[in-house]
Amino acid sequence: MATRAPFLTTHFGAYYHREVPQEDTELTHTGPGTPCGEYLRRFWQPVCFTDELRDLPIRVRILGEDLVVFRDFRGAIGLLELHCPHRGTSLEFGLISPRGIRCCYHGWLFDVDGAILETPGEPATSTLKDRLCHGAYPIHEHNGIVFAYMGPPEEQPAFPVYDSFNRPGYRLIPGRKYYYPCNWLQILENAMDPVHTAFLHTIVSGSQFTDEFGKVPELDFTQTPVGMIYMASRRVGDNIWARMVEAVLPNLQQVAPIWENGHHEHPFSGPMMSRWIVPVDDTNTLFIEFRHVSETAGVTPEWWANRDVMLPGQLASDAYEASQRQPGDYEAQVSQRAVAIHGLEHLGATDRGVIMFRQQLRQGIRAVTAGKAPDGPSRVAGTITATYCNDTVVRVPPAPTAEDDQQLMRATARKLVESYLARPPLLVGGRPG
Ligand code: FES
Ligand SMILES: [Fe+2]
Fold first, then answer.
1. Where are the domains of the chain?
2. Which of 270, 289, 347, 419 pairs with 111 at a CA distance of 20 to 30 A?
3. Closest-lying ligand 1 atom to the alpha carbon of residue 107
4. Phi–psi pair at 394, nearest 5 degrees
5. Is the CB of 105 inside a 6 Å radius of any atom of ligand 1?
6. 121 C-alpha to ligand 1 centroid (Å)
7. What is the spatial distance between Cα 219 and Cα 421, in angstroms, rounded to a whole number?
8. Which of 218, 196, 216, 217 is nearest to 208 (CA)?
9. pLDDT lower than 50: segments of the chain
């Protein structure tokens, strides 16, 4: 348990602010054998894009484990422990083979399931290869992303299919992959912190999204069957624009379109992006995304279908001064320290989403520690998991006073969310995948 940092109440009193508590290890440490690491290993985790797998193996690090990923000549994808079980040479220097991968040092050959097929330097009578297996993880390819299951084999869930992956009129395309040098949790929490879209992305840095994001929204949060959403409501003329961004346990976020401005009425829009936040280790994190692109011209901007174009405010600037003058998510999150120290925070009313998310996470971690299946997407084959991320714009003229209008915005968003939870719009309208 982290010790409490002193609450500083003295002017010019930094001298009294010496104690730095430890990070919340239960929520932030993800290596093998840690409570959160075991929790995250109960879910399929993305590793890389399918089209990265060409003629050379790729070294990856996921949840603190060094691994190699490759596609052999048969087309089978392997995800193996990086170091050869013979004498430890890295398989990133291996030879991709008709079946599996061959270590460059003494030629041992490994199949994608870890079977050792050949130990060519050993006598023909050697049974070494039959008595050993190399570490391997099962993979699943979905729509251009390679996912791995790194948990106990006997608890492997079905690959989860979300209603947002099978939307009539939309294509799901692989987007970008990038890294932040900090802990995964502070990145994921950002999605449950809608106030930063007004400050960081609009007021501080100039409109990185649309100008309308600059109004500090009315906030509300609710749990869903698979995680939680925030409701950020803004008054735009005679409209109320309700933006709902979603965290799907444990580490998937679905983001509503950043090109929304609330000027035109429309029903539930669905997400622009489904993005996983995957710990590389405790101080480095991988983002990997699907983009949702409408097949109808003009609904999603053209640049969104171009994988080379990045969402604004996400990557580090080229120059330090530029990052100071126009900070984005990268600067805000990475600078919270390598691992943000919760014991030094002073959470306020706008942090209710962050608090709710941490509670859900802790609950999932403790369920796994107690030997139970954690909450989250369906673990059963053949089911589709409903999700709730969207923008909705409804015509509701302003109430007479600012205070009444705030109430009206919250009530409107609540009503919308209740109707979506009762009848998930994408699930009802979607086709099974
Ligand atoms: S170290 Fe890999 S075959 Fe010898
Ligand atoms: Fe952001």
1. 45-148, 161-429
2. 289
3. 3
4. -120, 150
5. yes
6. 10
7. 18
8. 196
9. 1-4, 429-433
Q: Whose CA is nearest to atom 4 of ligand 1?
A: 106
Q: In the CATH hierarchy, which fold is given to the domain comprising 161-429?
A: Naphthalene 1,2-dioxygenase Alpha Subunit; Chain A, domain 1 (3.90.380)
Please, is 73 exposed, middle or buried when counting C-beta atoms within 10 Å of its C-beta (0-12, 13-18, 19+)?
Answer: exposed
Q: What are the E-state strand segments in 4-55?
A: 45-49
The answer to whether 247 and 359 have CB atoms below 8 angstroms apart is: no
Neighbours of 204 (CB within 10 A): 16
The ligand placed nearest to the CA atom of residue 91 is 1
> Which CATH architecture fits 45-148?
3-layer Sandwich (2.102)
Are 249 and 374 spatial neighbours (Cβ–Cβ below 8 Å)? yes
195 neighbors 207 (Cβ within 8 angstroms)? no
Read off the pLDDT of residues 14-49 as tens digits, 9 standing for 90 and up. 888 888 899 999 999 999 999 999 999 999 999 999
Prediction pTM value: 0.95
Angle CA(171)–CA(173)–CA(175) in degrees, nearest 5? Answer: 145
Q: Which residues have C-beta within 8 Å of that of residue 359, sequence separation ≥ 6?
A: none
Domains 45-148 and 161-429 share a fold: no
**Residues 192-247 pLDDT 10s:** 999 998 899 988 888 889 999 998 899 999 999 999 999 999 999 999 999 999 99
Query: Which tokens is 192 given?
Result: 């449950």
Reduced to 3 states (helix: H, G, I; strand: E, B; else coil), residue 25 is helix
Q: Return the best residue to mutate from 106, 116, 119 for the ligand 1 pocket (most ligand atoms within 8 A of CB).
A: 106
